[in-house]
Amino acid sequence: MKHLTLLCFLLISFYYVQSQQEVIDFDSGRWNIIRGEVKEHLGKKAFYGRAELVDTDFADGTIDFDLAVTGERSYPGIFLRVKNPGDYEHIYIRPHRIWYDDAVQYAPAYKGASCWQLFNGEGFTAAYKFPYDQWMHIRVVVKGEQALVYIDDLEDPVLHINQLDRGTAKGGIILDAPANGSAFFANFMLSDEVPDDFPTGLKQEVPFGMIRDWEVSEILNFAEIDHQKHPADQGLGELSY
Prior knowledge:
It is built from one helix and 13 strands, in the order αβββββββββββββ. Strands 1, 2, 3, 4, 5, 6, 7, 8, 9, 10, 11, 12 and 13 form a 13-stranded antiparallel beta sheet that branches. The termini are far apart.
């Protein structure tokens, strides 16, 4: 009886979120196509390349879309809470690495630099066997500093991101894939609803000794610093950061 009740609750949550969503057509005027093309692919109206959802200030909510890949080496995915072209949260897949433990990955980007090398393992990457040349459904649910990534199975997430590194700031949404036809998007939907049963995970533990926060000083002429003298005797204690 408990299992039946839980199943009913999950189905109600699923259909409630679905009911709040409508497909945002790629020809609707709500997309700024940075590069790529809208065309039919595998029986669906689809898009390949990079496109930004116009006038969106996304914080928490549910994002659904279909994705089809050829298996060619590529990194199709979605940029979330985009502050500017170089600062965003990034969730993407590696279709050429099926069953590898980094087939699905989360990585933040700062000033145009992706930090994927530092975000690996539980809470950041996951294994998955992607189907080729057929549609799969992707769902990303975001709440606060956490996110869930589902692929086809909408009951068990493939990846639970238990700490989005850029915090909870709002921002835009960008779909991103190569402009070579190796990955296509279709049926994009967006809702500000989050299921009531969103699981709460623990924040990612920071390894002992890892320094995560820095302050950068004004530019110094290294050649003029006397390493035999105390920093305070050379005015280094009065630097602005």
